Amino acid sequence: MTTQYGNQPTGQQHHGAPQRGTSSNVLSIIAIVLGVIGFIILPIVFALAGLAMAIIAKTVRHERLSTVAIVVSAIGLVGGMVLGAIFANM
């Protein structure tokens, strides 16, 4: 038994849900910048904030650059603390 409408297209196209993390890497880029700044000055403040933003970008927003941001911020945190300890003992 067929209906009046059948399987005719309605003019509406289903594109599916938009993919997350493919167009916006804003938090990841900010986290990378904060990690680099944290390597130079105040790693406890800047690199730690960058690390927190990178983790949020990874878990909540699923950004592609978030893994890079985590690595850069972690290196900025540890490296900045070591660099500060070296300069403090001079």
TrEMBL record:
Highest taxon listed in the record's lineage: Bacteria
Keywords assigned: Membrane, Transmembrane, Transmembrane helix
Membrane spanning stretches: 26-56, 68-88
Region called Disordered, residue ranges: 1-21
Record field: compositional bias (Polar residues): 1-13
Protein name as it appears in the record: DUF4190 domain-containing protein
Organism: Streptomyces arboris
Organism lineage string: Bacteria, Bacillati, Actinomycetota, Actinomycetes, Kitasatosporales
